[in-house]
Amino acid sequence: MLRLKVLELLDERSVTKYALYKQLGMSYQNFDKMIRNKTKSIRYEMIETLCVFFDRTPNDLFDYDPHK
After folding, report:
1. At what angle do helices 28-35 and 17-24 cross, to 10 degrees?
2. What is the pTM (predicted TM-score) of this model?
3. CB atoms within 10 A of CB 2
4. What CATH number does the domain containing 37 carry?
5. CB-based contacts of 21: which residues, under 8 Å, 6+ apart?
6. How does pLDDT run across 5-56, given as a tens digit for each residue?
7. By the 8 A CB rule, do 7 and 63 touch?
8. What domain count does the chain have?
């Protein structure tokens, strides 16, 4: 299972979900699905925006557990 680590990264930086939501410019419903790992897809531009926001690489944004 591939999992986006947005909530953990927000905690590390002491940044609110709202600040990230405003930066991404997406609907709150889609944002909420994304951070709760309930979405089926994510655009490359969104991954790039997250990388810039968190100053991380795509590898840092995701966890992979093949057993889930």
Report:
1. 120
2. 0.88
3. 11
4. 1.10.260.40
5. 28, 31
6. 999 999 999 999 999 999 999 999 999 999 999 999 999 999 999 999 999 9
7. no
8. 1
